[in-house]
Amino acid sequence: MRSASPSSAPSLGLPNQATGHRHDWATIKTLLPYLWAWKGRVLFALACLLVAKATNVAVPLIFKNIIDTLTVPQEHALLLVPIGLLAAYGALRFSTSMFTELREILFAKVTQRAVRTIALQVFEHLHALSLRFHLERQTGGLTRDIERGTRSINSLISYTLYSILPTLVEIALVLAILAQRYDISFTLITLGTLTLYVTYTVIITNWRTHLRRTVNELDSAANVRAIDSLINYETVKYFSNEAWEKSRYDEQMQKWEVAQIKNQYSLSYLNLGQSIIIAAGVSLMMWRATVGVVAGQMTVGDIVLVNAFLIQLYMPLNHLGVLYREIRQSLTDIEKMFSLLSQNREVEDAADARSLATGPCDIEFGAVNFSYEKDRQILFNLDLKIDAGKSAAVVGHSGSGKSTLARLLFRFYDVTNGGIKINGSDVRALTQTSLRAAIGIVPQDTVLFNDSIYYNIHYGRPTAAHDEVIAAARAAHIHDFIESLPQGYQTRVGERGLKLSGGEKQRVAIARALLKNPPILIFDEATSALDSKTEQAIQAELEMAARGRTTLIIAHRLSTVMNADQIVVMDKGCIVERGTHNDLLARGGAYAQMWALQQSQDNEANILTATPLTD
């Protein structure tokens, strides 16, 4: 009964969803290795299952003997009932419950560990998928698919091993006893009813599967719309579009309602058909038993035995029909989650990937070409070298490809042609973990966890001491603001950090990057959400933090990059100019024009600010 750790869990051999729907047996076979990791518990639980079913089937046999004894025409019939039969009857009843519960106790850890391991594998795999995958997916539908899939895995294991297998064992035992003790007609009627029942259930349930899939898809689509609307709460309010959002959500819910009603109707048809088959089978069996008693071939105890067997057989058989439907529905629910596991990683470590050595890093972009889509190239033959401990600023108009450099360096994507090297090693030859550990980034659009401010700063280096977190907050000029809050560092920032202003969120992101203390820093419009006063105050801190580190600064405001060791001007994916601030101004080219334009805009803004408004 050894522990099955997530790290040693078997890999999921999943078929590619692009080629068609997953086979149901493939799902079951995928789960078996997770259960077999606890083979001691599994085998013991199966033994308990067999004993429980054997004792359960033996109860009607004891009951038959008691009835036959009681029907003997004697005045003191009760005295003729062997005390051993009554004791055996009670012991068998208790044993059935005891071994059933013992099986549940033994298998509980197996089931929950299997669910935990698979859920962890899905979670880990999603984090390993590319940025492109997550940008193209809608979070609401993704989380709903995972939620339903995880819950359905638990249900599938429970249904198949707790209910289906015990029922099949009981059916086999009952058929064997009927065949051994009575006329073959009893076995044929029972077997025929079983066959008809199972066949009907399978055919109708297979028909219902596409209805269930439609319901799930519409449910996910409605959930996506709801979450997307709530995430954009402020935008909805800005344009007073509450009624519009309600109508869009209701439009999707109406489709879900129609599909769900059809699904419920089909379920009722299935239940009705199953009831007719069971009623017919029971009636035939009781008629045959009655004929046997009248003919003197069977005793009253025999008819009680047959009736008891029918109850024990058809009750789980009816449950088996329900279970089969639930299993098929569970398989439908986990289909989408399993399809996530079949998604290939766009960016993977090479088989011989090595870790990036600690210490100073130089960066070199060599003849880099890159396209997000095949028909839309972003970078064209780009060359850029940043020496260790030096800074390079990349400026240009929106859409020129500036932020793409940071994504490629972080290896969210791989270059189409050319290469990116750190200390002479192509980033594709390095492990992604070591590469990203060496890079700290302050993105333009900062998204925070729905937790405390302290947690969000500490996230930069979870092993950092409390004093280091405070020091990083001071360096980012946010410590005084945090201390002024009623709950200080334990103030929760809300969903995606919406309780903080844009500037406050960005300063938290800066503190987080400083706490990470990496040899490479990337500032992607790091001060874009700050006011001029705060920007000037924090600029010196950023330059101090960048001292001794290789720094890539992506900026729109040229005043923030004046002191960079080199400035690169990009336009339409190409480098059109490079040099220091003074060199580029002296050339009178694109950079000088951008500088003049921004200076003019800043002067106009200062004039407007200084001029009082009059009627």
Total number of beta strands: 10
Instruction: Specify the CATH class of the domain at 25-341.
Output: Mainly Alpha
Task: Round the Cα radius of gyration to an integer and report it.
Answer: 36 Å
Please mark out the parts with pLDDT under 50 across 5 or more consecutive residues, or reply none.
1-22
Specify the number of helices: 19
Helix-strand category: alpha/beta
CATH superfamily of the domain at 25-341: ABC transporter type 1, transmembrane domain
CATH architecture descriptor of the domain at 25-341: Up-down Bundle
Q: What percent of residues are in strands?
A: 5-15%
Oligomeric state of the chains present here? single chain
SSE series: HHHHHHHHHHEEEHEEHEHHHHEHEEEHH
Instruction: Report the average pLDDT across residues.
Output: 80
Going across the major beta sheet, what is the strand order?
Answer: 6-7-8-3-9-10
Q: What would the CATH topology of the domain at 25-341 be?
A: ABC transporter transmembrane region fold
- What about the largest sheet? 6 strands, mixed
Termini distance?
85 Å
Indicate the percent of residues in helices. Answer: 55-70%
Morphology? elongated
Question: What is the element layout, followed by pairings?
Answer:
Blueprint (H helix, E strand, L loop, with lengths): L23 H13 L2 H32 L6 H4 L2 H46 L2 H6 L2 H43 L2 H48 L1 H6 L3 H53 L5 H42 L21 E11 L2 E11 L4 E6 L5 H8 L7 E6 L2 E2 L5 H6 L1 E4 L10 H6 L7 H10 L3 H6 L17 H15 L3 E5 L7 H15 L3 E6 L10 E6 L2 E6 L1 H7 L2 H21 L5
Parallel strand pairs: 3-8, 3-9, 6-7, 7-8
Antiparallel strand pairs: 1-2, 1-4, 4-5, 9-10
Helix pairs in contact: 2-4, 2-6, 2-10, 4-6, 4-10, 6-7, 6-10, 7-9, 7-10, 9-10, 14-16, 18-19
